[in-house]
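Mods, move this if it's the wrong board.
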Amino acid sequence: MISGGQLINNTFVGNHAQFAGTVYASSDYLGQCLITNNIICNAVSGGGIYFDSQDKFTQFAFNDVWNNTDGDYISGVTETGLNGNISEDPQFVDVANSDYRLRDTSPCINAGDPNFQPAAGELDFYGSTRFYAGRVDIGASEYSDNFRPVANAGPDQVAGVTRLPVLILLDGSASTDPNGAALSTTGDRSAVRPEVSTMQARQSRSLLRSNSQRTRLN
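Not the wrong board. Structure tokens:
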């Protein structure tokens, strides 16, 4: 891909190449290449992505480059962890039977470019909607089945134990449902089990005694 080409929402699996990777990119004065929202994985030979040595302009973001023979990034520094790029098993439904839709546990779901807006009527490779649950997926397939709600009980809390049991308020209002359904919680408090707290207290007292003994010895 050269001189301003665009590669958006594709899935490359098991590619063979003698050199220069599954995807070759070279931006120049004629245009900047854009490579985004792609899965590049399981190359049998030749590696994952190759950037031309003179290329300083290609925009490479929100891709999953994983498990490619001869290397994921074969021409330089890895892009994993930068600009939304990941390197994880995309968790296809059934690779043996060429079903490259995403399982509901795939790290590629809702991990594409958050600013991506599909064209009117745009569909994914399998004929489903291209954009679902607020953010595009990485790859050619858009997961559009039921999502699991995402629980959020609020920030971590540290409670001083002066008596048992200890009541802790949990705020589940930040929990979300990717399908947009309204969520409700069944309670807002949690009790620390006395036996656990007692064990922790005993360990703390033992540690204090040990520290005191070391202090006297020193």
